[in-house]
């Protein structure tokens, strides 16, 4: 396993945010190492059924198919003011560039708190 570092929830972006959301949701998250042509570390989720196992990229901060499920599951409300997005679930998160980022940070803050541990490879 990789070394973990502590990061403020409000500072989470990209793959680190995906990792934190996956952990908050109780998913079996893991890292795929860098690939060819400069592909960076990426977060994936292992889904296991009774007879099969499959993996899928987990990127709710940029994929509405994943973020939309989170909105419905956690009854998150969105607001747009002064050019920035905010989300209200069990926690209020403001000042985000996109709605999915606001949604993800609100869920992480509600379930894991103001600081979280993420793999150091995911931080810039």
Automatic annotation (TrEMBL):
Protein origin, superkingdom: Bacteria
Pfam families per the UniProt record, alphabetical: Phage_P22_NinX
InterPro entries associated with the record: Phage_P22_NinX (IPR019701)
Protein name listed in UniProt: DUF2591 family protein
């Amino acid at each position: 396993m990789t070394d973990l570092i502590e990061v403020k929830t409000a500072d989470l972006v990209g793959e680190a945010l995906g990792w934190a959301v996956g952990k908050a949701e109780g998913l079996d998250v893991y890292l795929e190492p860098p690939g060819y042509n400069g592909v960076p570390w990426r977060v994936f989720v292992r889904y296991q059924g009774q007879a099969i196992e499959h993996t899928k990229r987990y990127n709710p901060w940029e994929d509405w198919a994943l973020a939309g499920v989170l909105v419905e599951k956690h009854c998150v409300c969105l607001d747009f003011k002064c050019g920035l997005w905010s989300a209200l679930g069990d926690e209020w998160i403001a000042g985000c560039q996109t709605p999915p980022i606001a949604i993800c940070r609100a869920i992480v803050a509600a379930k894991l708190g103001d600081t979280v541990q993420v793999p150091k490879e995911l931080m810039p």
